[in-house]
Design a protein that fits this description.
single chain; alpha+beta; Fructose-1,6-Bisphosphatase, Chain A, domain 1; D-Maltodextrin-Binding Protein, domain 2; seven-stranded mixed beta sheet; five-stranded mixed beta sheet; 9 helices; 14 strands; 31% helix
Length: 318
């Protein structure tokens, strides 16, 4: 199932990863979006490459992406557009500025019965400081995530890896392979008996969650070690690989009305679930990836090895 979609998605994410690695060698100044979070030419270049690849093969399947080329079409952003196009041309020969703009904006699709959702760089702050980031692509069909591809160019689970890519198809398991090619490793979440890996991950940015409460919940279910703080959906890959038993992202007291974006979790969720883990909100509800771009009915995210999931929910709701 979804063999063609999987092949194209992997190829596109690998190409986008290559562009991002090139940009990281000489990170340009960050722009600012309306929400004041940083965005680099890599975000735009990554979205252009992936949208182009998907559009060519699946023209009838919309893409719901994070980025938008409206600002880039302004005269004062001409130099930034030139720089983005230069990077894209290293991957796609003869790409023009207008094509790059159109490819980026192809990611402005709407949630529908079948659609892709894309975060061209998840963890932009981690990307900027030479730390973890992810390129996250998922296919959602009939209300369910069917395919997830998660490129993590800076994540080395094994010493022999120089970055890795996670791939999961619903009902077919979850796999990891080195970014530069090689054997696929089937993934399995960690057991509670593996003390060394019985730990939890959370975001680096304190504003992304409630770190005090997250630590309290982890301790309540028997995790005594300090959290591992990691940017981006790489956290999902760490849980799926059995390197952590829990990932918590609880609502920040500073932003009580915040709701999560679907592209920040869809690809990672299926990677963990197909490795034997469980993903819900803090009340045990499935994450809603198919109603809108924001998960308005969900609060918080709980990702676990499944064995401790109910204990986590009980601790949260006491």
């Amino acid at each position: 199932m979804y063999q063609k979609e999987k092949e194209i998605a992997i190829s596109a994410v690998l190409q986008a990863s290559e562009l991002c690695q090139k940009v990281r060698q000489d990170i340009p100044p960050a722009l600012e979006k309306q929400d004041k979070s940083p965005v680099t030419v890599a975000d735009f270049g990554s979205q252009a490459i992936i949208c182009k690849a998907l559009k060519d093969i699946f023209p009838d399947t919309p893409i719901v992406g994070e980025e938008d080329a409206t600002e880039l079409r302004q005269p004062e952003q001409k130099n930034t557009l030139i720089k983005i196009t230069e990077y894209v041309k290293q991957i796609i020969d003869n790409a023009s500025e207008n094509q790059v703009l159109d490819w980026i904006d192809y990611g402005n699709g709407k949630v529908s019965r079948r659609f892709w959702t894309l975060d061209p760089i998840d963890g932009t702050k981690g990307f900027l400081r030479q730390d973890q980031y992810a390129i996250a692509l998922a296919l959602i069909e009939d209300g369910e995530v069917k395919l997830g591809v998660l490129g993590c160019p800076a994540l080395n689970i094994n010493q022999n890896e120089q970055g890795c890519i996670f791939v999961a198809v619903r009902g077919e398991g979850s796999y990891r392979m080195p970014l530069n090619g090689g054997e696929m490793t089937k993934l399995q979440v960690v057991s509670n008996d593996d003390v060394q890996r019985f730990r939890f991950v959370e975001s680096v940015e304190a504003s992304h969650g409630d770190q005090e409460r997250q630590n309290a919940i982890a301790q309540a279910v028997g995790i005594t070690s300090q959290s591992v703080r990691v940017d981006s959906q790489a956290k999902y890959g760490i849980v799926a690989s059995g390197e952590a038993a829990l990932y918590l992202r609880l609502p920040s007291p500073k932003y009580p009305d915040y709701r999560e974006n679907i592209w920040d979790h869809a690809a990672g969720a299926i990677v963990v679930e197909e490795a034997g883990g469980k993903v819900t909100d803090m009340y045990g509800n499935p994450l809603d990836f198919f109603t809108a771009t924001k998960m308005m009915e969900n609060r918080g995210v709980v990702v676990s090895n499944s064995k401790i999931h109910e204990k986590v929910l009980e601790a949260l709701n006491q």
